[in-house]
Amino acid sequence: EEVVENNNEGFLPKLPPFDYSPPPYTGPSAAEILAKRKTYLSPSLLHFYNKPLNIVDGKMQYLFDESGRRYLDAFGGIATVCCGHCHPDVVKSITNQINRIQHTTVVYLNHAIADFAEALTSKMPGNLKVVFFTNSGTEANELAMMIARLYTGCNDIISLRNAYHGNAAGTMGATAQCNWKFNVVQTGVHHALNPDPYRGVFGSDGEKYAKDVQDLIDFGTSGHVAGFISEAIQGVGGIIELAPNYLPAVYASIKKAGGLCIADEVQSGFGRTGSHFWGFETQGVVPDIVTMAKGIGNGIPLGAVVTTPEVAEVLTRRSYFNTFGGNPVCTAAGLAVLKVIEKEKLQSNAFVVGSHLKERLTALKDKYEIIGDVRGRGMMLGVELVSDRQLKTPAKAETLRVMEQMKELGVLIGKGGFHGNVFRITPPLCFTKDDADYLVDAMDYTLSKM
Ligand code: PLP
């Protein structure tokens, strides 16, 4: 049976050719899965699209639904799949490892965890040489915040409004959007003004926003703090790149107050920004602690905290461990990911293709009033829709309509931001120029019909 890839008659471009056909799918239908999900899974879980997709296969930058229909994946499993879905080198590394040993515990030695820690620290600046593996970004940030508190003997942490750092008790405190917070105890975090060039009160003046952090230290704490945590480009918050010169000024204030600077690289790490391997490097700072997850394992559950030997010493006060953190199968995946990023020059591809994509999206902004802002870098791009450019009124319903229509054209994008009116474009880093062109053509066509 012929697979229909493009069911929109007025739209002429075709998805770039791709030499892969998934095996036939004989499992349950989308409707059956949805019914089970409603009965057996947490009601907090949301799905995209009126008719949710049943994704049964993935290969590089493409996903396939139950009928074998191919979609360009421009969300990348929420900025997670960096090498491409089921990249053969990553699959091979996982398979080789899983055929030998699935799990050990920290009380025995295994080379996979040590090899990956060594490789990972070779990508870090300064003296960031000690790794603690976790299973997620939340856990990594929980640990980073605890380390900062132990090291400094202080409790106060400063985070940014609109940040997303996780969903456990401590990290939910650092997360700063009511959409993602429950009303349970989350103490010790102060939220500074967000250095958001589009919606923030000081526009792109990073140093003015940094003054707010100094004010928080002076007027909201004892003058001493445990630390500061931020993303370099807020992901869940709607792809907001911190205003230039912000982090150097803030890091100086935090250091003066005795605190540690934590860079949350869960989304922006592993070459996604194109210009740099780590997002914090775009602002020329060196953190005391770096947290990561998502891209680190290309979708395999893995996270990490990297810090200096001096700071890591605080963990020796207890036998501090994590049952699954550094599981050999996950760290084997991580090692393969680093090799693929290097071998396939994925960071440089993120830069070249991402710049082209951003240029073309920016041109769409000139064509359509509804596009209020195009931002981000590399393969971490945002397009914000507004119904009034002056007032920046969020166009939430239109955002959903465009996403639905683009799905019909075979393109999957994400959405986010406080108002849910920002497209999040975070594809696997193997995305090609033809893919980028198809995405923009599909968005152009969709906006032209609204
Ligand atoms: N930090 C950032 C920047 C994130 O985007 C996320 C998740 O989206 C997290 C932390 C939490 O990671 P996880 O969902 O793996 O716990």
Automatic annotation (TrEMBL):
It is an enzyme of class 2 (transferase). It holds the Pfam family Aminotran_3. It catalyses: glyoxylate + L-alanine = glycine + pyruvate. InterPro entries: Aminotrans_3, Aminotrans_3_PPA_site, PyrdxlP-dep_Trfase, PyrdxlP-dep_Trfase_major, PyrdxlP-dep_Trfase_small. Keywords: Photorespiration, Pyridoxal phosphate. The keyword Protein biosynthesis does not apply. GO terms for biological process: photorespiration. Its cofactor is pyridoxal 5'-phosphate. Belongs to the class-III pyridoxal-phosphate-dependent aminotransferase family. This is alanine--glyoxylate transaminase.
